[in-house]
Specification:
The protein has 7 helices and 12 strands. The strands form 2 sheets. Strands 7-6-5-2-8-1-9-10-11-12 form a 10-stranded antiparallel sheet. The protein is of the alpha+beta class and 328 residues long. The longest helix is centred in the first third of the chain and has 11 residues, at 73-83. The protein has a single domain (73-327), classed as Hypothetical protein YwqG fold, CATH 2.30.320.10. The protein has helices at residues 73-83, 93-102, 105-112, 164-171, 241-245, 249-259, 310-314; strands at 116-122, 135-137, 150-151, 154-155, 157-163, 182-187, 204-209, 224-233, 268-271, 285-290, 301-308, 322-327. α2 packs antiparallel against α6 (249-259). Helix content is 18%, strand content 20%.
């Protein structure tokens, strides 16, 4: 796979990604070597916040759209497990009204009950105007000392760090982790880990640590502050939810087209549902979805997702976290 000839540019539409198939290992060509904290910052072209994909409106044709769907039985089970923590009341009133108007009563109720809590993570418009942030892309760990994770003898990149004390109040009883300390997200920034389609890869590591000083910073990015906003999320038309609700696929496509303006995908998201067409690792739900930022010179990679089984999410067990990524 050839790397792009120039940096990624802003786009008003989310690119249609190439999707991995089970058993394939696709390694995107990486334009720069692994970056360390001491290296000079090479700023990449900033990605504009991508619009949420909207499907073209279809007529009443019974033909099912040709698309990659992630509605396996395991994913449906995972969706039901996590959605128990959701809140219909937290969805915008326009969303609830549209769903109840467009779907049969039982299907509408079932769909709204699939709502999951999530947190939108965005870059502040003005860095100087933000004092308390939810965390950063990159940055120093800001924790007590720990053993830095490695992959194939290379230190993993600290991709994101999130402040639990800032985020926990946003979700209240739905927050599954400790209400203090930091969540650290590391990954194999060279994308060398073997990729196995609906199993993702193991080129990632997540840990929760108390705040403190003295932690190393072996491989990271210049810190980019993040703000946080709670958002309710619903499964999109590509999730296989039409089969679960027993409604025509075109009805779900057309409904999602009208819901999309009220459920716009944030730049980065904690929890919720997939904002892209990434293939979920079997039995996993999204933990953190990250889009490219200044400093993440990923070449043909347009997004990285950390996935976790629902039972592990509720018990703060990060040992089975998997990673997937999309290619443009």
């Amino acid at each position: 796979m050839s790397p792009p000839t120039e940096g990624r540019h802003a786009s008003s539409e989310r690119p249609t990604p190439s999707r991995h198939t089970a058993g394939d290992h696709q390694t995107p060509e990486h334009p720069t070597p692994h970056r360390h904290a001491s290296a000079d910052h090479a700023a990449s072209h900033r990605h504009a916040s991508p619009d949420h994909p909207t499907a073209a409106r279809h007529d009443g044709s019974a033909d099912r759209p040709t698309t990659t769907r992630h509605g396996s039985a395991d994913q449906v089970s995972a969706r039901r497990h996590v959605s128990e923590a959701g809140s219909v009341a937290s969805l915008p009133a326009e969303v609830r009204a549209l769903v109840r108007t467009r779907l049969p009563v039982e299907a509408a109720t079932a769909y709204l009950e699939m709502s999951r809590p999530s947190i939108a993570l965005e870059r502040p418009a003005r860095r100087a105007a933000v004092r308390a942030t939810a965390g950063t892309i990159g940055g120093d760990p800001g924790t007590v000392p720990f053993d830095w994770p490695y992959y194939r003898s290379q230190p993993m990149l600290l991709l994101a760090r999130l402040d639990c004390s800032h985020l926990a109040p946003l979700l209240g009883r739905h927050w599954p982790f400790p209400d203090h300390g930091w969540l650290l997200f590391f990954h194999d920034d060279g994308f060398t880990a073997p990729y196995f389609g609906d199993h993702g890869d193991d080129g990632c590591h997540v840990m929760h640590l108390p705040a403190g000083t003295g932690a190393p910073a072996l491989a990271t990015l210049p810190p980019l502050p993040l703000t946080a906003t709670p958002l309710a999320a619903l499964p999109d038309w590509q999730s296989g939810v039409d089969e679960e609700l027993d409604i025509p696929p075109t009805d779900m496509i057309n409904l999602w087209e009208d819901l999309s303006p009220y459920l716009t995908a944030p730049r980065h998201r904690l929890f919720g549902y997939p904002d892209t067409q990434a293939t979920p690792p079997t039995g996993h739900v999204p933990l953190l979805q990250v889009s490219p930022e200044a400093g993440t010179q990923w070449g043909t990679v347009s997004g990285v997702t950390f996935w976790i089984p629902p039972t592990a999410l509720s018990s703060s067990d990060f040992s089975t976290v998997r990673r997937s990524y999309e290619l443009t």
